[in-house]
Specification:
The chain is mainly alpha-helical. It has 14 helices and two strands. Strands 1-2 form a two-stranded antiparallel sheet. The two termini are about 45 Å apart.
């Protein structure tokens, strides 16, 4: 019953996380698009620009003030709970998926750290990530956005490498995503919202607002916008063991993040110019190159591995989880519906088994059954012989 409850808790929290995440990312994309597409040629000293748009059968007229209107409107919508809800549900997912079953999902098979120490390290990385990022944004690098971006990317890559030494590849990726998400929600909580409260407070009190605070809030909002696509990839990365399961998973993450930022920059600027149109073919080419260089070496069917040896191997290393009746604590049903109770089922899932047990070594979970390299090679040879026949 406990495994069943955890499974449903995972589903509900993940579903809510996706829903509120879509709301937050959608708002970020829309407002950056709006800022970049304002008509700034209007002759109104109070306005920074305006935009006419049509959507859903209606025509809209949007205006942005240079700083603030002379009086506060009766109704003013604040965008904040989308961000807060996304972060809260993300942390809950960390707890449900990784921290509540750390031995299986959090720890790297070669890690010398205990589960509690690794959990503490993961939590500390979220706080430390925000503090370092905020200090960088307040340093002289804030005047050089390109350099700031490169320094930040290098720092996150270093963190990804370090975490992958003590955490499973999947957990390391998710923690990097959680660090970025904490940076983004920190921008909302500590920078953007205070600036907006100060602006509204100044209008209400009839005093001149401080223009530097809204300007800084807009800058941090742009940072959030560029960080969204790397985070979205990390959110879905658990479906792609060829990325987080690679021996150079930190380098793959860096490359995918650079591709994401380049594509985001193109879409942020394409209505002003086509100077960054090269980002799209670059992204396609880069993905093709990455797919090629990360392809696992294909084992030939040379040699002979008996079916009985593979059956024994499945019983020892796979069937406690991947079975019609799993015995592994935490599983009420076979993960992803993959059952390996017999060789017919193994043949049916041969490509997936090869990818996860031979090419990337992400299975068995945390290698708790101590599957040896020789066994992985034998399994690979047997699987290759089945596809060759």
């Amino acid at each position: 019953m406990e495994a069943h409850i955890i499974d449903w808790l995972n589903l509900v929290v993940r579903w809510v996380h996706v829903i509120v995440g879509i709301a937050w990312i959608g708002a970020s994309f829309y407002f950056v698009w709006l800022e970049n597409n304002l008509d700034r040629s209007i002759k109104n000293a109070d306005l920074a620009g305006e935009l006419w748009a049509i959507h859903g059968g209606g025509i809209y007229h949007l205006q942005k003030y240079n700083l603030a209107p002379k009086t506060m409107p009766k109704h003013l919508h604040w965008f904040k709970w989308e961000a807060y809800s996304t972060w809260i549900t993300g942390v809950l997912l960390l707890i449900v998926v990784f921290y509540s079953n750390a031995d299986s999902y959090l720890l790297a098979s070669q890690s010398v750290l205990s589960a509690n120490t690794t959990i503490a390290l993961g939590a500390a990385s979220l706080v430390g990530g925000w503090l370092v990022y905020d200090l960088l944004c307040k340093s002289p690098l804030r005047q050089q956005p390109m350099v700031l971006g490169l320094v930040l990317m290098a720092a996150l890559t270093l963190v990804a490498w370090g975490l992958s030494e003590v955490m499973s590849g999947r957990a390391a990726y998710i923690h990097v995503g959680a660090i970025i998400g904490t940076m983004m929600v920190g921008n909302v909580f500590f920078v953007i919202m205070p600036a907006q409260r100060d602006l509204v407070g100044a209008i209400t009190a009839g005093r001149q607002p401080d223009p530097s605070k809204p300007k800084n809030a807009l800058l941090r909002s742009r940072h959030n916008n560029y960080l969204t696509l790397p985070v979205v990839f990390i959110m879905i990365s658990n479906h792609f063991p060829s990325t987080y399961g690679s021996g150079v998973n930190w380098l793959i993450l860096l490359c995918l993040a650079l591709i994401s930022v380049a594509v985001r920059h193109y879409f942020n600027t394409r209505h002003q110019s086509q100077a960054y149109v090269w980002a799209l073919p670059f992204a396609v080419l880069a993905l093709m190159v990455m797919a090629y260089v990360t392809a696992p070496a294909k084992l030939s069917g040379a040699g002979k591995v008996a079916d009985a040896e593979i059956s024994q191997m499945m019983g020892q290393h796979c069937q406690s989880c991947h079975s019609a009746n799993p015995t592994f604590v935490g599983f009420a049903t076979a993960p992803a519906g993959v059952m390996l109770d017999d060789l017919t089922q193994l043949r049916q899932h041969s490509a997936r088994v090869y990818q996860q047990a031979v090419a990337t070594h992400i299975m068995p979970l945390a290698n708790q059954t101590n599957m040896t390299e020789a066994e992985r090679q034998q399994l690979g040879i047997w699987l290759a012989s089945q596809t060759d026949n």
